[in-house]
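Morning!

This is the sequence you dropped in the shared folder:
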Amino acid sequence: MPADLELLTPPEAAVVAQVTVRDIHRVIDEKILPEHLYTVEGGRRLHVTACPLVGFYFHAADALTAEERGKLIRRVSERIGPEAAHKTITHGRSRPADWTVHDGFLTVSLWDFATSAEHRHAKLAEARRMVVEDSEILDGTPVIRGTRIPVYDVAASVAAGLPRERIRSAYPRLDDHKIELATIYAEATPPRGRPRRPLMPGSGLKVVSERKVARRRRA
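The structure's back. Tokens below.
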């Protein structure tokens, strides 16, 4: 694979393809994805153009057999060559016909998967621009640009099921768009070590018990 192609880590590729990280590893381990669309040297990386193919493989599982999906992926991947370097997913293949494959009586379009991956990739790029790491701000904790709001705390609040209005109330400088980008960034760039709990306390919580448990004395 040429070194100048944009490569994504498994979590990044999972965000763009809208699948799980486990799915990304599966397409490599089971050789579902052609080898020229990924590399394992120095860590697994996928070409960004492979994301529509990965998304198609898993989201079309109810409609097509694994054998048929694999065959269609190979047919489409033959159209993806070195000229894809530094280009967006749909650049040079900007029409639905460019992502349509005919196999006997079967005709399948991957156009929706391509445009969806293009959109998610753009969102990921925007999320990267929004997040900064500065040693003078919270000891380098990734924060939303122009604020001291930890991006992983916002994402953890979303993952905990807190309503958007409560998150916006706790962080007045956020809007729904920034909250969405924070979750995308956190999914694509998972923090190392033990996940942090969100700093924002959940309002409206009720104490169901105040029973104290005595410490066991040492013998």
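Headline: The CA atoms of residues 155 and 180 lie 8 Å apart.

More detail when I'm at my desk.
O.
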